[in-house]
Design a protein that fits this description.
Length: about 550
Amino acid sequence: MQQDPQRLNVVFGHLHEGVLVEDAARRVRLANTAFTELFTPGMSPDDLVGVDCDAAAVQSAPLFRDPEGWLERTRAIVARHQPVTSEPWQLADGRWIERDYYVRLHGHEAYEHIWIYRDVTRQRAAVDAAVELAQATERTGFRDWEVTIDRMARRAEEVGAVQRGSMAAVKVLQMDLVNAELGYAGGDELLVTVLAQLRERFGHDNVERLKGTVFGVVTADADPDRLLRDLHEVLDPTRIEADHFVTLSTAIGVVTTGDITDVRTGRELFELARYAVREGQRHPADLVMDLRLRNKARIAHELESRLPEALESGEFVLHYQPIVRMAGTRTIGYEALVRWEHPVHGLLAPDAFIPVAEELGVVARIDRWVIEQVCRAARDTFPDDATLLGINLSTKSAADGLALVQVLRDCVAEYEVNARRLVVEVTESAVADDLPAFITVMRKFRSVGVSVGIDDFGVGSSTLAALRLLPFNYLKIDRSFVIDLHDARVQDLIRLIVAIGHTFSAEVIAEGVETQDQADLLLRCGVGMGQGWLLGRPALPQP
Ligand code: C2E
Ligand code: CA
Ligand code: CA
């Protein structure tokens, strides 16, 4: 301060915390703008210099919600030279502040008192909200999610629901409407009523409020239809609440375990019910979970909870299927096809998890992993520079696509791959979704130097006009054409696709070639390249 008071002032002036320094006689030596903004807005800090602090404290006490308390405490702190940190005070206008106090001593004599003040109103509001929420959830029977779900799970096992009972998740929908009608307290009240009614019907311990507006119910009854009927009886949608007429709308998901032998825990059962509710919300109807949905729910749960670690720990593998020039059966490349070697569910085909990953919005992580693996394999496993390598990408959005272009660019550089060997396969249906965005992505891929193949061609709905705009190098004829190859009209169609391919200087590849007859017919239709069990099954690469 002695050497460069000007500079010190600049620093003080920019602090967000209010600083006040008093001298031995308790006169203001220094204050900053943040301080005056807190207590005397509009006043310059310089005007405070020399002011008697005790007198000022008396004068400003009414600013505090508890003026006497504040004055007394301030005097005590100064008298005892007692350091203080983060002492909270509420101002009369509702703001909350915190203050620190430090004293600088010469022996027992204080020669400087330093106060630091900060406005903590916002932080305080967050804490208050949390406390309020905690109290509200206590009132309404909502407990900690993990605890509740474990309790439910134990209960499901106790009542035998896991072995032969059912479990339901019930979600009260459109709470925003209810809250608008009844206020938040009224909304809470409604949920409490729902809980009470469910408990009355199914037994107190068999019902919990689980998360937000979701309730869990376990029963030993294995008949899903009866459970649904009972739930509807209890959850009568038309009701009078606090003199208001309210319509209760719900989504109900039921899992019945009567015929399931592989559900291991109540917890898992419950996750399934919750998933059923999610699905039910999408197709607004009550949902009894069937086998297909149950597997999907499981995969979704796995993808949500541990995809990164599964990718990391080598549970995903790529199989490579030969792409063959049929006249002579020379392998000119391979398509990489992903599989998930799940530690519990066994080997999963991509159709079991790719669509779910797409739905959950996590498929780009898998695609990224595939790109990197294929580039690495191009260097280490398939070093022949003439060998093509097909990569399936599910570019559902242009944004994903552009991010993947970057990944591809990086990997091509890192593994020193000749980009021309890589064929990015995108399905025809993706093309039709948003053509302009798709064209942009394709052009970016091409700018990396890779080739582009249109997968499942013939079953999507891309127009010839669209094809004209797409930079593609391969057309892969969908397997369904090969299956119906005996039909003369299908053969005509294939000749047509071949002609389209030639028009755009693209190679045509037939998928799903299983028999020699098919291979011969395809050759006769002018299809030069094929892929299928006849020509080679997908397999781990042979080093
Ligand atoms: P796709 O790209 O049309 O792949 C061809 C599918 O047909 C593969 O199934 C392959 O195993 C199968 N296949 C090959 N030859 C024959 C045959 O002669 N007969 C029959 N019946 N099937 C044959 P897969 O590996 O189960 O893949 C299914 C789909 O999953 C793929 O269809 C592709 O759309 C997607 N997929 C596969 N790998 C990946 C990947 O790494 N990333 C992404 N995003 N999707 C992938
Ligand atoms: Ca493909
Ligand atoms: Ca295909």
